[in-house]
Design a protein that fits this description.
This protein is mainly α. It has a single domain, classed as F1FO ATP Synthase (Up-down Bundle), CATH 1.20.20.10. The protein is built from 3 helices and no strands. Helix 2 packs antiparallel against helix 3. The radius of gyration is 21 Å and the shape is elongated. 4% of the residues are buried.
């Protein structure tokens, strides 16, 4: 099953590559625009998924620590904020991809 998926992926990539090389200059510029949008979406999507995983793990560990010692709540919140910052960096990268 895995070999069929690998072969199908290779064939599709080869077909897309041959179509890209056969395109003229105007179509290449339009194709570049589409790749920029896809790259920006991937930057935001993957960074938000990573940030969500990090916040989930840090939040669970912080709640466990606070259940044993309630004074740790002030020390745990900055770490959650740092994990949320990953999403903001992904958004910043997407803005740079699209407009620079």
């Amino acid at each position: 099953m895995k070999t069929k998926i690998v072969i199908l992926t290779a064939v599709l990539l080869l077909a897309c590559a041959s179509a890209a090389f056969a395109a003229d200059e105007g179509a290449a510029a339009a194709s570049n625009t589409h790749w920029r949008w896809i790259a920006a979406a991937a930057a935001v999507g993957l960074s938000c998924i990573g940030g969500g995983v990090a916040v989930g793990q840090i939040g669970a560990a912080a709640m466990g620590a606070m259940s044993e010692n309630p004074e740790l709540s002030g020390k745990a919140l900055p770490f959650v904020g740092l994990a949320e910052g990953i999403c903001l960096w992904g958004f910043l990268v997407a803005i740079l991809i699209l407009f620079v």
